[in-house]
Design a protein that fits this description.
81% of the residues lie in helices and 0% in strands. It is mainly alpha-helical.
Length: 118
């Protein structure tokens, strides 16, 4: 049952994002930033963790989960490193995801021809 819930929650998030992309003139990069910032805000106000516990991996994998990971890293970094933790914590917590995004984004750009949205 956990697999179905994760599949449907992740699919619903991605479906809503696809509707946003199709119905607005927002560029995909801006929509991605919107998702990451939303994940940070939901984590900061304490809404994302209960949602993550209920939805499982379906909520952790999309960019909302990445934003929440950044927030948790910043929160932990401030506790250990003070002001410097604001800059260091998020990168430390999400370094594997950032590295993977860079590598796979570069490979995707080499294989496919990126186009601007009209």
């Amino acid at each position: 049952m956990d697999y179905l819930k994760a599949f449907f929650v992740g699919g619903a998030i991605c479906g809503l994002v696809q509707i946003l992309l199709d119905r607005t003139k927002l560029m995909p990069g801006r929509v991605m930033v919107l998702l990451v910032v939303t994940g940070c805000i939901l984590g900061a106000v304490g809404i994302y963790e209960p949602f993550l516990e209920w939805a499982g991996t379906g909520a952790a994998v999309p960019l909302l989960g990445f934003g929440n990971t950044l927030w948790k890293g910043v929160k932990e970094g401030i506790g250990t490193d003070g002001f410097l933790g604001i800059f260091k914590g998020g990168l430390t917590a999400s370094s594997a995801g950032i590295a993977a995004a860079l590598v796979f984004g570069y490979l995707g750009a080499l294989i496919f021809k990126p186009k601007m949205k009209k």
